[in-house]
User: What shape does this take?
Amino acid sequence: MSELVRYAVEEGVAVVTIDNPPVNALSPGVPEGIEAAIAQAGADPEARAVVVIGAGRTFIAGADIREFGKIVAGEKPRLSLYGFLERIEDCAKPVVMAIHGTALGGGLEVAMAGHYRVAVAGAEVGQPEVKLGIIPGAAGTQRLPRLCGVATAARMCALGEPVKAAGALEAGILDAILDGDLRAGAIAFAREAAGRPVRKVRERREKLAAADLGPLREKVEQRMRGQRAPLAAIDAVEAAAKLAFAEGCAFEAKLFNECLFSPQSKALIHIFFGERTVGKAPGLSKETPVAAIASCAIVGAGTMGSGIATAYLNAGIPVALQEAGAEALEAGVARIRRNFDSAVEKCRITPEEAKRRMSMLKPTLQWEGFGSADILVEAVYENLELKQQTFAQLDKLAKPGAILATNTSTLDIDRIAAATARPAQVIGHHFFSPAHVMRLLEIVRGRETSASVIATSMELAKRLKKVGVLVGNCRGFVGNRMFHEYMTQAVFLVEEGAEPSFVDAALEDWGMAMGPLAVGDLAGLDVGWRIRQEFKHLERPGVRYPRAGDRLAEMGRYGQKTGRGWYLYGADRQRQPDPEVAEAAREVAREQGVARRTHTREEVLERTLLSLVNEGARLLEEGIAQRAVDIDIIYVYGYGFPAWRGGPMKWAELEGLAGICDRVRTLGWEPAPLLVERAGGAGRFDA
Ligand code: CAA
Assistant: This one.
């Protein structure tokens, strides 16, 4: 028996324990160990039935995702778990799968090869493979519909969302939910089953009636636009109703391999590991002290301040919220209440819970709560002087050791920190709007920010259910410095004659959640205008700058909030083209001497996407971004970049860096030196 799988006999039942921390993935040795243990149980006169259970925090969380890269690189043979699962199912003694934690992907597929499945109430089961750009690859699309019907199975495999134990019991995936100790309960269940004839899932057909999967396909085409795996998953489940089991498995295997070898899967697996990698910032050791954050004080109750307050309250951290005027404070409190009301409407929290969270909010026109708070967050207007004044004030109010965080999206952290006598305690916490919804938190270290303040911020991000990415200090940091280049191209295109809807549609069809001009309208064109005023003195003569957005802002067209920006917005908030915008763009072009012409969609994509990649390479070279994967996670979680394209840097790698470098030159731009170097070398940004 391998060390990964243990065998013991208890009360006449063979107990097979999988012990492959942290999540009992099916790494090499695990399937072999399970198979050997089942064979041993089959031959063991002491054992009348078998229980398969996971050690530690979970049942099997799926195939070992790290192996997929090796398979695609040709270093390992293709995945083939079909025979292994059939041999479990062929065991003459009843096999009971005992589930706690999560039985996901290959984990659920192993569970379905058992004759019975029992679980604790807190367990979850699912086929989340589509989130990795693949489909179940060990008969999941064939056994699952045999247990729960074609419609439910197709939904689970296409959307990838796990199902809680109660739902799984109702659907027929589980046979029982056990109270108390799972191991003891499963052994008792197995003793009862012993002696009864076993029933193989693969031989069942009673739930295989065909279902209309058209509406699901439509939903997937909308919600998971551009992705191959969800539709392939539906096709594979549908095949279960039409084909014999073995043929269905062969069909599934064909689709699985097509998906696994696709760029989409490489991109999504990169994002899966990337989300976990960014939490481990280079240079921070496990010994770095992490301060306890039990209370927060926020200055500024505008859109950002109230969103940040909601995020803290959601994490159970009490918040003092300050504004100078009663009206603004009340508006902020009302926004926070609306956030909770909306969570109640969506059944995410109970009305009592919403009330409890509201009760942890202390609005103040003075500075009550600021002296005792562990972290003070500044969320005032994007203006350096105002931020410096605010920090001078916070420095006076805060207790020693408190963290002072600024929510600036572009300004120099060091200059803000210089307004205090404790620059080591100052850090950037750049939230994305709406701050209680968007997952990204850009954590910006200043020159003097202490390691402990950084480590505390990284931990705090997790508590706030954010993906925290540590970046260096420069104008716009990583996300907005790249976005600035991207937006510049979008505005140039409009000044040259492209319709805003043409630019946005090209990028949205490519996979961006929202086109850049629509994003501008959502964020407010006055915000960009204000930032550009801050940096006007840095403009150089003879260089072309985007002007059309500022022109619109100066016309009072602030975007969605004024019903007019790059688009017109009616009561339904739908974007409508506005001839006034085209006229403003024409006027700017005339003033700037910009030639008007027509553009192709390809040109829109080339200019906007390559501007992201080129600037990203510069940020890496300067060390502002520590790793390319940090940039990718920032773009996927903060800017609506499609995860299935891997983020801008991974996308460039998948396209081929040598080609990308040539394409940058074709646009007449200077490629970033790091891009040139990597294009001629490893073809990758990260080692
Ligand atoms: N393979 C390899 N490593 C895995 C893994 C897997 N299936 N699942 C998790 N890990 C690793 C993580 O990368 C992480 O590693 P580090 O500590 O080095 O960063 C560690 O296990 C712990 O994971 P989390 O931090 O995510 O822990 P969590 O408790 O927050 O979540 C989880 C646990 C819900 C299982 C989550 O890790 C998860 O969703 N994992 C992926 C599950 C999945 O997609 N399974 C399907 C795999 S594909 C498949 O099975 C194909 C098939 O049909 C055969």
User: Anything to note?
Assistant: The chain has four domains: 5-261, 296-471, 479-602, 609-679. Residues 22-23, 25, 61-66, 81, 102, 104-106, 109, 128-129, 132, 136-138, 140, 273, 276 surround acetoacetyl-coenzyme A (CB under 6 Å).
